[in-house]
Amino acid sequence: METLYIAAGGAAVVVVLLTVVLWRRGGSDAAESRRAHEAAQERDPPVEIGDTYEFGVVEFADHHSGDRVAVGKVQGFVLFTEDVPSGLEAGDVIRAKVTSFNEGHTSADALFVERG
Questions:
Q1: Residue 108: which domain range?
Q2: 0.90 exceeded by the pTM?
Q3: What are residue 37's phi and psi, to 5 degrees?
């Protein structure tokens, strides 16, 4: 019976340790994201309103207007590109014209110009 208690105690310790490791790993991802966001707020955007940039589409998202927008990055700076053609896919290279910055200048909106 004593062996059973020792085995159960050992198993409980393993479960607690795994839980702590997994929790800390998730916490480090959140902390990394927070640090990246704070760093973006402190730097000047690498794009200018009215200029056109070429970049790869990383993913698509639903814009607050309900439209599908292409998401891409220029020097790590996120651009949300509107008016994208329906056949566009992640990985495609496009050119887009920056139209405005979002709050905090941590990202910008752009309009699709052409495929790259």
A1: 52-115
A2: no
A3: -65, -45
9 vs 1 pLDDT, higher one: 1
Report how far residue 111's alpha carbon sits from residue 19's, in angstroms, rounded to the nearest whole number. Answer: 45
Helix (H) or strand (E) holding 90: none
For residues 79 and 49, what is the distance between their CA atoms, to the nearest angstrom? 12
Report how far residue 97's alpha carbon sits from residue 75's, in angstroms, rounded to the nearest whole number.
15
> Structurally, how many domains does the chain consist of?
2
Assess whether 33 and 61 both reside in one domain.
no
DSSP string, 42-68: HSPPSS-TT-EEEEEEEEEEE-TTS-E
What angle (nearest 5°) sits at the alpha carbon of residue 105, between those of residues 100 and 107? 70
**CATH code: domain of residue 109:** 2.40.50.140
Cα separation, 69 vs 18, in Å, equals 39
Digit-coded pLDDT (tens) for 26-64:
566 778 777 766 766 778 899 999 999 999 999 999 877
